[in-house]
Design goal:
Elements lengths: L7 H4 L1 H10 L6 H10 L4 E5 L5 H8 L3 E6 L2 H8 L7 E5 L10 E6 L3 H4 L3 H14 E12 L11 H4 L1 E5 L3 E13 L2 E10 L5 E9 L3 H10 L3 E6 L8 E7 L3 E2 L10 H21 L3 H11 L5 E2 L1
Parallel strand pairs: 1-2, 1-4, 2-3, 4-5
Antiparallel strand pairs: 5-11, 6-7, 7-8, 8-9, 10-11, 12-13
Helix pairs in contact: 10-11
Length: 301
Amino acid sequence: MVSRMPDDIFEHPRLAAIYDALDPDRSDLDAYAAIAEELGARRVLDIGCGTGTFALLLARRGHKVIAVDPAAGSIAVASGKPGAERVQWIHGDATGLPPMEVDLATMTANVAQAIADPQDWRETLRGAYKALRAGGHLVFETRDPAYRAWQEWNRAASYSQTDIPGVGPVESWVEVTDVSGPLVTFCSTVVFASDGEVLTSDSTLRFRERDEVEVSLTAQGFVVDEVRGAPDRPGREFVFLARRPRRARNAGYLPLVSAETAERIHRWHENAYRAGQAEGRSEQTFTYLHRTLIVPPEVSR
């Protein structure tokens, strides 16, 4: 199981209940729905489904959807929405799923970044791989670190006041509290005018470079078919389309190491990169060595 407990913004009943009202524009999900149609996916696994917005959107369009999230508060909100009976809701994460063979697994809304621990990330990718049928796809997004999105996460830029029916006026904002290498920690603050209660939630996201994500996918057996931009956030996001191959084919080159060895090399790469930073060595040195040891197989579609 993924080791990290859900953030209060997703788990606390009072915060989970107003999550959708504080983030009403979900046009970012249109691109994922279009990809599901593009790939002809009928069975979809929504990893980190939150309050169920995307899962329910797909279910209304006729997809068979399994939605999983570690936050019980979010699952409670999702399962209480109209049409929720069309979705199979699971309280948990991708590492403990029942047997299934879905056509598509998704992680929308930067769920991938919330899986900040490297071991948790590897286990999540492994769980997604097992859940897919041969030839199935994993699609997810992550912010491009070069854009430095966290520089906009401050009270002045993020403050809003929302009048929520049945709740009343609610103030909300976010503020970055720490930046340590690829890890960015921020605090979400919500103030309820009805009784003056102030609730806060701390979150940490990992900003992964494109090469790092591709290597982690390859190490778990995926083939990276394409890396797109997010249509609604051009230049800010990477959208990865990875595939579980149907079968390996001897076409002149094969993986040079086993999956187990690849995982050990992945751990070494992470540790060596941290040590190399302290000594002034470049990330490219370690990425090149890693890629010379892990050669993706040629596969048939």
